[in-house]
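Contributing new records

If you add data, match the layout below exactly. Sequence lines come first and carry their own label; structure lines follow with theirs. Keep one chain per record. Anything else will be rejected by the validation script.
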Amino acid sequence: MPANMYDYTIPALLRGLGVLRSYLDKMQAAVDAGQFTGEALLQARLADDMLPLGRQFQIACDNAKNGPARLTGQEAPWFADNEQTIGEYRHRVEKTIAFLRALTPEAFDGSDARMIDQSYRRAGVAMAGEDYLRALLLPNFYFHLAVAHSILRHQGIRLGKSDYLGALPGSQALASPGNGHPVRFLTRAESLEWLAGRGLRETPATYEPGNSHFQFDLRPLPIRLSGLIGSLLEDLGEFEGGLLLLSDWIWDDEYEGDPTALYREAQKEVRPLNEAPGLILDKSNRQDAVALLTLLVERKWTGQFHFASGATTLRIVEGDRVEVYTANPEAERLVQYRLAVSGGDVLPV
């Protein structure tokens, strides 16, 4: 954990702040519909001796900005706690998000061992940053998030577990596709036809003259997945687009729907994943390719990306193992170096 203090702190806080922002949007929609007044909602509480909803938003924001500031030894921005309207509370959330986005992973170096003075909560002790993060910062932040959820639900605002969970890993990247050429969706039959038209097989031959075939495990490499995926695409050759064909997937229907649905809606694609599991990516869709391949790893799905050049196929198996088939003579050496730096290695085939 110490090597990943940024990864355990900032993404969790940003996701929670995104949930608070969505709650404020729902509150404003209810006010606009004439169901409530903003003042009544912000003063609502579950019990007479509890803080009202507005204070829940303020304290959650304070936790989100002050905690990372303490861990990194920086000054957090000061807020006057004088918000009166839903819009002003939303601005407070946005300011907090902006502060967190300005923090870098390097700022958290050594934060696991940094002693955090607890006098701010009237405790005459100090604790190591790692303990502070696990025992106080995140639990306290989520407490106020959960109380805000409960107050709104009690007031009749339509919220469910999926609203509280917010954007799950991978879904946020897919909800905001890149600005490249629109992605084109294909059925499995159309995907195989696309491959055949380029003289490619769905599953490349393991051994072909001049080609190399190697594999490696992605877990438990202590690195950010999207960064590794982006680096791998560079190592395997110039990105000219290609076909991503998904072959095995699953998600939890109790909490969410198809994680690619938002991405499909952005491209005005009405067919679901089971009908159109193939995605054609243009060379300007590199960001989308990284997001989609990262999704496969995070969700432990299986699929493969066929480079448009036909020289390389990158196959991800159940999110854990990566198999590479390539005619690029430098690819294996570059990937092996990348993995060695990251703490991994190419495995025997």
